[in-house]
Every structure is written in C-alpha cells, then in structure tokens.
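for the writeup, i need someone to sanity check this before i put it in the appendix. the sequnce is what the collaborator sent (i think, or maybe the updated version? ugh). structure was predicted straight from it, no edits. if anything looks off just tell me and ill rerun, i have time this weekend
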Amino acid sequence: MRELHQRLRRTERERQGRLPEPSAGIIDSQSVDGSETCPASSRGYDGGKSRDGRKRHILTDTGGLLLEVTVTPANVHDSKAAPELLEAFMAEPGRLLELVWVDSAYQGQELADAFAAHGVEVEVVKRTDGTKGFKVLARRWVVERTLGWLSRSRRLNRDHERRPDHHVQMVWWAATITLVRRMAGQRPHWPEFRPHRLAAPGPAPG
C-alpha cells in the first residue's frame, strides 16, 4: 500500500506542476486510544493528550500529501520518534528533502544531529507569545489537516491493531483513499462521463 500511495502522490504532484519529490515537509503526531486488542507491550500513556494507546507520526509535503508514517507507543516523545520517521523516508534514493517545519516539541541535539546527517534543516513554528485559544499556525495547519483527514477513517479513530506495523498499513490505506478521491474529484463523474448510463426519465408524478 505504501508503494501505491507513493506512486499516486508523485503523479498528483506532477499534475500540480511540481517536482515528484518535495524539498520541504511538515512533521506532527497524533495519539489515539488503543482497544482491548492493542497489547500492553506496544502501547503507552500520553499524559499531554490523555490517550492510552499508540501514536502515529507523519511527514507530509507542503500540500498535505502523506510522505511517511511511523507508529510508536503513545508515551514516546515526538523528538525521539522524528529521527526514525525521517530515516524511513530518506532511505529511498531520489529524495530531495531539505527543510522540515515542526512544532516546539521537536527540539534537542539528538534530533538536530539526526536531521543534519541527511542535510535537512529543521525550522520550529511557534505560537505568538500571549496568544490564547485556537490559532492557525503557518505551515503547521497543513499537517494538522492531514491528521484530520486520517481521523475520518473509522478504523483509525481507535487503534484496533495487534501490531504497530499493521497500524502503519491502515494509515497508508486511509491516506490512499483520500488521495484517490482528491484525484478523482478533478475528473467528470460517471453521469457526465458516461451519459448512456443515465436512467430514462419516468412518468410524471400524480
């Protein structure tokens, strides 16, 4: 499923007049509660979000298309999971990533060294001092929207998977469905594309 999504993602970027591989991306995470089928050995408690389960960490391009995903216990700090996420993406040849936007959780020398090893710059997008309540943050809103898209998948509202790698595949599946619908929405729907399938008008009511 990952390879299918990657091919579709490249096609969609080219359709938009962009390079198949992005030079910039955004990273964020989302914790979800685990069901009784999610074993204790691969789950944890995220005190900040009050979630007992797993956390999915995603990297997207600047349009919100999924580039990479990893899954950890929910108690794993974002800065600890980000190097593995980047490594998984950069492991394939032809990657052009140079800049990643993150929130203030993604800091520390270990993370900086991991990103520098791939020649990727990290830029932290912070809230304005004194700001209260909801605030749309530059760049960050893109990855948060993608997490919202993923949450529309009922399978991802809770973690029902026995293994983290199964959860990863469910994320790819949900992202592929969203991407295909986006691509299909730019083509005529079947009534216009196949007019011969339109039903013949029935008798007038009454």
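The mean pLDDT is 87. The chain is about 35% helix and 20% strand.
thx in advance!!
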